Amino acid sequence: MKFSFSDEQQAFRESIRRFLADKSPTTEVRRLMETDEGCDRAVWRQLSQELGLTGIAIPEAYGGQGFGINELAIALEEAGRALLCAPLFASGVMAATAILKGATGAQKQALLPAIASGETVATLAIAEDAGRWEASAIEMMATSSGDAFRLNGTKSFVLDGHSADQILVAARTGGAGGDADGVSLFRVSGDADGLNKKLLKSTDPTRKLARLTFDNVEAELIGTKGAAAAPLRDTLDIAAICLANEMVGGAERLLESAIEYANMRVQFGRPIGSFQSLKHKAADMLLDVELAKSAAYYAAAAVDEGDDDITALASISKSAAADAYMQTAIHTVQIHGGIGFTWDNDTHLWYKRAKSSEVFLGTSAQHRERLMQQTIV
Amino acid sequence: MSEITEESVRAEVRAWLAENWDASLSLIDWRNRLIDSGWGMPHWPKQWYGRDLPVGMAAIVEEEIERAGAIGVAKTGIRPLAAATILVHGTDYQKEKYLRPNLTGEHAWCQLFSEPGSGSDLAGAATKAELKGNKWVINGQKVWTTSAHVADYGLLLARTNVDEVKHKGLAYFIIDMKQPGVEVVPLRQMNGHASFNQVFLTNAEVPPEEMVEQEGEGWKIATTTLMHERRGADSLKRYQKPKDLPERIYQEEAEEIRVALEPYTWYPQRAGRVDLIVERARETGTDHDPVIRQEIAKVLILSQCAEWTARRARAAQQEGRPQGPEGSLGKLASSYVAKAANNVHTMISGADAMLTGEDSPMGGVIAEVLVSTPAISIAGGTDEIQKNIIAERVLKMPKEPRTDTDRPFKDVPKNLVS
User: Fold this and answer.
1) What is the pTM (predicted TM-score) of this model?
2) Does A22 touch chain B (CB under 8 A)?
């Protein structure tokens, strides 16, 4: 296992950082978060077509860049840092991974090139009103009539579900709620008849969430009927690892803003950063962020190396990053004092992303329990 | 002269060992032979028992000595710190007198820096050194002195001038520990062990030729010692395994190692024994308790993240890249791991956590964890000092205004008892 990035990876990171500094300043974040679509189409086109970020981990055979999760994670860390408003996570991580893990060769050929190029925005719908991202929690039923399938029920907390062109949906073709078996993966067109899409009011307005109701919606089976549990688990593991990398990017940005403010703000005739109470808080923040980064980097590299413990690593990195991000956000508001609680100050943008990330794809407590099931049974 | 390469050094030391290593010698006779050859400290100057080889070659030579089943120079305890400091700052007289018996292991050393009144603030040392006639007369108290009870000589930081600012009024001495003015009293810790000593200096005497460099240079020289201490922080591991062989020379080495390691038997417990957590949870059935499972997971995650962070730091070092902030965080991280592990061991043991010794889990190992972890947040730089260092050096936060560096030491506020 390598514990450092190559020169090429560093250069890749720097090019994304420069691009996002230019295209996703907080003025843009604030503008886009107020819109329903939550994305600038021109920027999306550039980042998928010129930078190739959407297809970074999609094999070249399917129109992608053919890099690994390592590189995808770098892109997400930078996106998290810049609080990029775009369906990169929905399309490039969740939908692309689900297709790569669960679809037939022909389906990959049919779906992935348009996702890689950014022409199609896709997403993955797993959680329902109970808000749980696991196969066993799925209750939505798929019924078949001949070769065709029809979906009935509800999906919620679907990332960019209101705007996606293609929606991958996990639903039951067998078993009952509580079973991991009997779950299948389907593709539904975003403009299908009987699909009702409601944009939810989300605490973090940069992360658009939708509730989708399915009334006899026509769906294409993806992969093998009843065999989606394993590809879904793999997809959710990789998504959790990618989210961890996105989170540490945001956490580091918060830390930097907190230190910059502490060193500039003067009270009692001294920069407040010269007080030990703030230094000690800052040192703890750095420790939290660096430990979480180590886990996020390790887990991403482990996916590319075919490590056997990806489920455990996903839970370690997700919970470490979520706890670090939230704690860093709380401290960053505190270090800014009154100004940190205002709408005009940018801290709350990341604070809200941290809060949302804390529960998206499962809370830290759920991931710790999941880790224990891997470690101690 | 041919170029020095790793291969040429290996070949040369191998040939010398094949010719000279003799397990039937006494430990001291062998080490004298090794020291005379220059292979004991190959990176030292030729004039002083070395061969002027680059520092990087020392590890190569050590490997070859190990491979031959031979024994290197004495490296236990404070000896390497004393040797390194004297080599850099000592007079020829001091080098002549102290270096060889240090390397043979005939002399044992201790470090007399910390005082009851100056712990984190080492430069605040108040132990007095006064020149009376042709002797320096030392009065004061040192503390946390590992192996003082077996030491022949001590590295002493003492104050010769209270009218100077604090960092300028110090001198560095080599003090003979076997004299009436030096009283060594074991310091019993809250976990019952006595790994350290208090050293009471009452009109102890040091001849002027035992001062290292000049008055006023003490802090600079202490910094050299401390730098070597930090650099060698994990060298403890190197001599943890004595060879279990019958010849006298191995037995003598094993005894030297045993004496040096005796103070550290509880150090694994100080770190929290994360390795025992899952086993203990299983054997107590607490592995099914959802609350305890959460706490176990927190410790496992924290300690795993700390381990990966240390490996990131090492990778940067090995690749010659500038080390990121990850390099400064290890000590603080282990402190938090130990605290969290203590908490979990307590939850797992339940009422048994009230017991110690043979009445308690694992024959007292867990009990020792529960009363030893506070030490890791203090020894070698408290968590608070670590955080100041991280904040000021890594995060570049401004230093606090100081009130102890702008006036003579005598006017600096001090502890009432120091």
Assistant:
1) 0.91
2) no
